[in-house]
Design a protein that fits this description.
The complex is a heterodimer of chains A (357) and B (56).
Chain A lengths: L2 H18 L2 H19 L4 H11 L3 H23 L12 H17 L3 H10 L2 H25 L9 H5 L1 H23 L8 H21 L6 H14 L14 H8 L6 H17 L11 H20 L4 H10 L3 H23 L3
Chain B lengths: L2 H24 L30
The chains are: A mainly alpha (357), B mainly alpha (56).
Chain lengths: 357, 56
């Protein structure tokens, strides 16, 4: 579809949301469009950045991600200190987090996209990612159904750096941690490498601003996975396959309320829809470069997508909800997520190579 | 772009649209008099939305 009619359709949906749902949801939809355009326009792939670092010792993607994390931390931690209405992305350090992050890091390489990556590539029209999205939602739903059982294996209360140390110290600790990640990457890639790439840097700046807007407007950090699980939970409940009142997660008042409300009222869902729309808008002029897959590659990719959805609930987020939002709002679970997911990715790139994905 | 990819894209977007229409028709109407604040920061209302980091 051409950009003009597409722009009009997106505008019409924005007006519908303003008129029939709420102005906040309409604005969050616009923020989501910006996220989708930034992710797909800059091809800002968390999965690709990690893979380039491992396989080619190319640090440009990871450098872009570190800039994104640093900027988002400066903005978010300052805002969290100023406004008591805003909440951090606090997940519990737990056995579930360790296993979930590892499996997520592994499967995101096979599926060639994390939570945001799957969204924007589906919006761009990449066949595998369009196929993965419903399975990601199903996995995310099943993960949320069983996350209570996983937590019985062992968990701590969520730890927030702002609560523990105050915003200034939380920011200093966060920036020091990011510098350590950068140092580790420098040791791995060796001297003489190009670190900065205009595309990655522009993407990082745009996403940091948009993630901050999400926090400012919605009152909570950017997330992806919750919305997917909610969509599948709604379908399963309507089909009589699932009783939310008998489930530890979905019987909680907030989750039960969102199950009964229109999905367009949900914060994560509306930015997810916006990301799809923004990527579709970019795809009107983007060159398609996806290769046809064999039946085996499809099967492996779809299975990886399902496991990615399931493990992201166990890990309390994906690269966005746990890594970006967790770290930038001072949650310890984000710092635990990164090394575990990276360990999974080390295995994932080998599986990816084996199946020639 | 191949035709099959176009078809897959059409199925994907039609599926998403169908889900949203179905959800909108079966959910209770939105209480427009109880809108959330446009900007949560400074509104005095703590966000209570769902997020992937929440354990329950």
């Amino acid at each position: 579809m051409k950009r003009l009619p597409l722009s009009l359709l997106l505008l019409l949906f924005f007006i519908y949301l303003t008129w029939s749902v709420s102005i906040r949801q309409a604005v969050l939809f616009a923020v989501g469009i910006g996220m989708g355009a930034a992710l797909s326009g800059a091809r800002f792939g968390f999965t690709t950045g990690w893979r380039l670092l491992i396989e080619q010792r190319d640090p440009r993607g990871v450098a872009g991600q570190l800039v994104l994390l640093a900027l988002a931390s400066v903005f978010s931690l300052t805002l969290l200190d100023q406004y008591s209405e805003l909440t951090a992305a606090l997940g519990p350090p737990s056995i579930s987090l360790l296993i979930g992050a590892f499996v997520f890091g592994l499967t995101m390489q096979i599926a060639d996209g994390c939570g945001s990556g799957t969204l924007y590539k589906a919006g761009l029209g990449v066949p595998l990612n369009m196929g993965i999205l419903p399975l990601f939602a199903l996995g995310s739903f099943l993960g949320s159904v069983q996350v209570g059982d996983w937590l019985t294996l062992g968990q701590l209360q969520p730890i927030g750096l702002v609560t523990e140390f105050g915003s200034t110290q939380a920011l200093l600790i966060t920036l020091a941690g990011l510098a350590l990640f950068g140092l580790a990457a420098r040791l791995w890639v060796g001297p003489g490498r190009t670190w900065w790439d205009r595309k990655w840097l522009l993407g990082a700046i745009a996403l940091a601003v948009l993630a901050t807007l999400n926090l400012l407007i919605a009152g909570q950090p950017w997330g992806v996975v919750y919305g997917f699980g909610l969509w599948a939970a709604k379908i399963a409940t309507a089909a009589g396959l699932f009783d939310p009142t008998a489930n530890a997660f979905w019987s909680q008042s907030g989750n039960a309320q969102r199950l009964s409300e229109m999905v367009l009222m949900d914060i994560t869902s509306i930015t997810n829809i916006g990301i799809l729309g923004g990527a579709l808008w970019v795809s009107a002029r983007a060159k398609s470069d996806s290769q046809p897959l064999t039946a085996t590659q499809w099967a492996i990719g779809l299975l990886a997508g399902f496991l990615m959805g399931y493990s992201s609930r166990l890990a309390f987020g994906c690269n966005i909800g746990a890594m970006l939002s967790g770290i930038s709002t001072g949650s310890i679970h984000g710092w635990i997520w990164v090394p575990l997911a990276f360990a999974g990715t080390l295995l994932g790139v080998r599986v990816r190579r084996h199946y020639k994905l | 772009m191949s035709l099959s990819k176009h078809k897959l894209q059409a199925v994907f977007w039609c599926g998403l649209l169908a889900f949203l229409v179905w959800d909108t028709t079966q959910a209770p109407p939105v209480d427009l008099r109880n809108e959330p604040p446009l900007i949560a920061a400074g509104s005095g209302r703590v966000s209570s939305g769902g997020h992937c980091a929440i354990a329950k």
